[in-house]
Amino acid sequence: MVSEDTAFTSVLEETAKGAFYLFSGGFIATALSALCGIIIARLLGPEDYGAYSLAFTIPFFLTVFTGFGVNSALTRYISSLYRGGRSSRIASIIRIGMIFTLLESIVVYLVGLLFIDWLSTWLINRPELSNPTLYLLPVVVFQAIVNASIGALLGFNDAKRVTYVSIIQQVFRLALAPLLIITGFGLIGALIGNTIAYALAVIPALIYLHHYYALVRDDDNVESGRLLLIQMITYGAPLYVSSVVSSLVDTYRNALLSRIADDYVIGSFNAAFRFVTLITIIMAPISTMLFPAFSRLSNNKAELGKLFTISVKYSSLVVVPAAVLCIVMPREIVAVLLGREYLALTPHYFALISLNYLYVAVGYMVLGSFFSGVGDTRVNLEATVVYAVVFAGLAVPLSGLIGVDGLAYSIVLANGASTIYSLVVARRKHGVSLDYYSTLGVFGAAVSSAIPAYILSTSIQVVGVLPNLLKIVIGGLAYLLIYATLLPKLGVINRGDLDFIVNAFSKIKPLKPLILLIAKYEEKLIKS
Prior knowledge:
The chain contains 21 helices and no strands. It has 528 residues and is mostly helical. The chain is globular and about 65 Å long. The model is unreliable at 287-292 (pLDDT under 50).
C-alpha cells in the first residue's frame, strides 16, 4: 500500500509538473496573445482599440450563459474516477457533457443574434457596434466547446494538450487579425480574425479529447443521460452562477465605463487591464493544476491543509514580486508593449490594476481551486456575490468622484473583500491556515527590493522601446537579486523549503538547471 506521505508527494510532483507545462505553454500562448494585442492596439490606435475591446463585451457576456458549470464537473468527476481506476462512467460523462455544451451554446448564440441591437445599445452604449459584433458572435459556440474539452483534459491531468490548444488558437489570432487590419478591413478584420482563430482551436481540442474517449469507451457503463447531466449541473451550478455573477459585474463595469469615458480613455483602460496578463501567466497554471490536486486529497484533511498552506506560500513567492515590479515600473512596461501613444493614461491604470495581485499572499490565487477541489463550490459563489456587492456599491460613487480611477479602486477593494471572505470560510469550515510570518516576509522582501527599481524608473526618463527595455532589464535584475537575497535573511525560506522545491521541480528537465542554481545561492545565504 502506498503511504500517505508518498501519495502526498506524488500529488505535489504531478501538480508541479502540470503547472510547469501549463506555465510554459501558457507563457507561449499568452506571449502570442499579448503580441497580437500589441500589434492590434498599435494598428488601431487608442480610439479604435476602445471600440474593439467593447465589441468583445457582448459575446463574452453571452458565453457565460453556456455550460452551466459542466466544465468544472468534467474536471472533478473525470479526475476522481480516472485516478481511482473507475473508468466505467467516464465515457458517458464526456459524451453527455459535450453534447449538452454544444446544443446549449447554439441556443445562446441564436438568442444573441436575435437581440444584438438591443445588447449593443444597453450593454455598451454603442449601437453603431451591433454590425461589427455580429462577426464575433460565433465565438460563443466555439469557446464553449473548447472550454468543455479543456475541462475534460484537465480531469485526465493532461496539461500538455491543454496548452497546445491555447497555443494553436493564439498562433492563428496572431496570423489573421493583424493581417486583416493591414489589408484594409480595419476593426471588422480584427474581429473576424479572432473568430476564425477560436473556430480553428475547436479542432485540436476535440481531437485530443477523442484520444481519451477512445481509451475509456470500451469500459463504458452507459447511464441515463438525464440523471448524469443533472448530477454534473448540480455540482457545477454554484460555479456556473458564480461565473454569471462575475460576467454581470464585468458587463456592468463596461457599461459604466462606456457612459463616463470616451473611446480613447476606454482603450487606455482596457489596454492596461489586458496587459496585466503579464502577471496572470504565472497565476493561471498554478491555480488550474491545484483544482485536481485538491480534489485528489479532499478526503485527507491534514494533507489538504498542508497543500493549501504550501500553495499559498510558494505562489506568493513568485506572484507578489511580479506584481510589485509592475506597480513600480508601469511606464517602462507600457512603453515597450504599446508605444508612446498609450503613455498618457495606460501606465497609471496598469499600476492600479496590478494591486489586485498582491492578494495572492493571502490566498487570492488558491482559494477558488481549493473550494472547487473539495466540492464546496457554494463558497465560490458566495465569494463572487461579495465581490459583486462591494463593487456595485463602490463603483458609481467612486467613479462619480474620481472618474475611471474610481472603477479601478472599486475592483481592487472588491477583490480584497472577496478574498478575505473566502479565507475566513476556509479556515472555519476546513481548518486550513496561512503561514502568516511568510506572508509578511514576502511583502517585506518584495517592497524593499523594489526601491532601486522605483528610483531608476522615476529619476531617468527615456524615449523609445530599447531604452525602456534596458531600464526594465536593469531594474528587474537588481530587484530579483535583492529579493532572492532577502528571502532567506528574513527567514521566509529555509533548508526545508529548498529541499521541497528541488524535489518538486527538479524532475522537470527544462527547469532543473535554473532550480539548482537558485537553490545553491539560497543555501549559501542560509548557511552564512
